[in-house]
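user: can you give me the structure for this one chain? tokens are fine.
assistant: on it. calling the predictor now.
[tool input]
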Amino acid sequence: MFTGILNLPWWGDLLVLLVAVQITIAAVTVYLHRCQAHRALDVHPIVSHFFRAWLWFTTGMITKEWAAIHRKHHAKCETEDDPHSPQILGINKVLWTGVVLYVKESHKPETMERYGHGTPDDWIERNLYTPLNKWGILITLSANILLFGAIPGFLMWGVQMLWIPFWAAGVINGLGHWWGYRNFTTGDASTNMTPIAAWIGGEELHNNHHAYPTSAKFSIRWYEFDLGWMYIRILSALGLATVRKTAPKVKLDPSRFEVDAQTLQAVIAHRYDVLTRYGRSMKGACATEMATLRAKGHDSQALKAIRKWLHHDALDVPAEHREKVLQVFASSPLLHTTWSMRQELARLWERSTLNTDQLVSQLKDWCERAEKSEVKPLAEFSRSLRCYA
């Protein structure tokens, strides 16, 4: 019951389990996520076939289904059509039944047809991995029992089967849109759960990923560590992977002042960084203004609403808070200017019908009005915006 062919001590079984789980995590984050879903890198056919086989044996997941569901998540993030948004469905449902939501979405033909393009469609996929996706995990169960003994083998298999459904479908999809810190003011609720992203292969840096979804590297700040990126670097050094894209680095050129097409291009490329810097630059002045309003006896509920929604898109503000926000704006030209100028700046990269010259003109006009305003932090931010290169 307790011994198998290998007859390992308990710590030997545990070591094998940890290595096996880590390979599964690498297969998910490197192959399914960064390679297949986002095309951030290409991997050698040997690596691709190894990961596909490993996932078949250890998870039963189908590449097309995983890529399609994840692509839809990005396309419909935090909306009713998002397959697993805790902002819509609630954190408990996504955290504890994330795998159920995944299976439910995988049964929708329209999701597979619209978002599942470009995934493997060779003989082995059509005849083994997709139609017989449950066989692999049964083979793994039998092999575990044979190698490690009935009880240890079954327990090891159980952990392998639960690891990705809980940590990926539950924790990443749930807590990754609920709790943590944010480097970028993205249009969703994505967060980084920890700067040292090793437990789930780098997936913990979820806000960074949503800011730059086609980047093969999830870490952005100097203090962040992405284990999945380390795996990719090793594969690249061995000639088994080619990185296609990483997040662009912000470059500020103090000598630049004139707003031109290059400025526009840099601002759009770093739009989430721009909005984050905007919020940070205005934070002190806005906090002082709200403290002044509070001292004057302004409605505390209205101030609470403005504190939460001041640096969000207008469409994000719930209907029940909009009247309170407008009340504060009527009493504070500074907060109203901070809000309206942010909305204008965010609209800049959403106007796809305008040509480059028109967008440059609008950005130049925005900077000029910001610098002529009586809000000093806004003027300082505008001058730094001109330096994007």
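assistant: here you go. Residues 371 and 379 are 4 Å apart (CA to CA). The two ends are 66 Å apart (CA to CA).
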